[in-house]
Amino acid sequence: MQKENLVNSWRNAKIANEKTLEAFVKVPRELFVLQELREVAYEDYPLPILCGKTISQPTTTIIMINALELRDGDRVLEIGTGSGYHAALIATAIGSNGKVYSLEVVPELVSFSRDNLKRAGIKNVTVMEEDGSQGYPKEAPFDRIIITAACPEIPKPLIDQLNIGGVLVGPVGPIHTQEMVKLRKTSRGIEKEGLGEFVFLPMVGKHGFREEELEQLG
Question: Which CATH architecture has domain 3-217?
Answer without folding.
Answer: 3-Layer(aba) Sandwich (3.40)
